[in-house]
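Example record used in the benchmark description.
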Amino acid sequence: MRHTSTADGIPPALRHFDELPDSAGVSLPIVKAVTGAGSDATVWRWSKSGLLPKPYKAGPNSTRWNCGELRQAIAAMKSPAAA
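Model output (structure tokens):
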């Protein structure tokens, strides 16, 4: 079962990102939205450079990022030391 969006077009995983457990995995569109990355390529470039965590394969056609690691990366991006 796939839940792509609600009536307002916001995916449930994005709407409830702060409530997801650290062990949850989120897809590329969610990572792009929570990080403010302008494109898919930016997310992949940031992952490759270490700015974002490395994704993992959740299935043959499914790549996910760990929520806990992603939250840490976002916090580090917002900290004054990162600027």
